[in-house]
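Q: Structure tokens for this one, please.
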Amino acid sequence: MIGDKDDEDWAERVAAAWAGFEADPEQDGAAFRAVIDALAGELPEDSPQALFERACAWDSTGHSERAVPLYRRALAGGLSGVSGYQGRRARIQLASSLRNTGRAEEGVALLTPELDAPSDELDDAVRATLALCLASLGREREGLALVLGALAPHLPRYRRSMAAYARGLVEPGG
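A: Here is the predicted structure, written as tokens:
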């Protein structure tokens, strides 16, 4: 494994590549994937971080079907052990890609346990992605309840009401 300073340098270069891609809506997807592939190539071939970055690049350039196996390999290869944050991101993004490729039920199964995971800044993304998966399965009320529940704490007013409405969408008689 490369040293901490090298790890930081690599992560900064990856972050800079993503920032450039996100800032330029006209950037060619293939060219961007080549940049990420070159950066990922600096790590061992089976590196979960390299697999994750490649998956993200395919996903972000409209190729969910190519991203799914890479996300799976990154997670199976121990991405969560390297970075719990990246592991959670990979599960969110894999669930989204599964939904995009007609496998929303797999996305629901993947993200449902995340509702009970330790809280972090990705909680709302978990709920939003899970809501999309549920909606794709015709379970819109459950999805709406998740989104309202995620939104409620951010509102300047009506927090209690929105949280109660969210619960009412999925409770019996609601």
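A few notes: Residues 152 and 158 are 7 Å apart (CA to CA). The chain has two domains: 4-138, 140-174.
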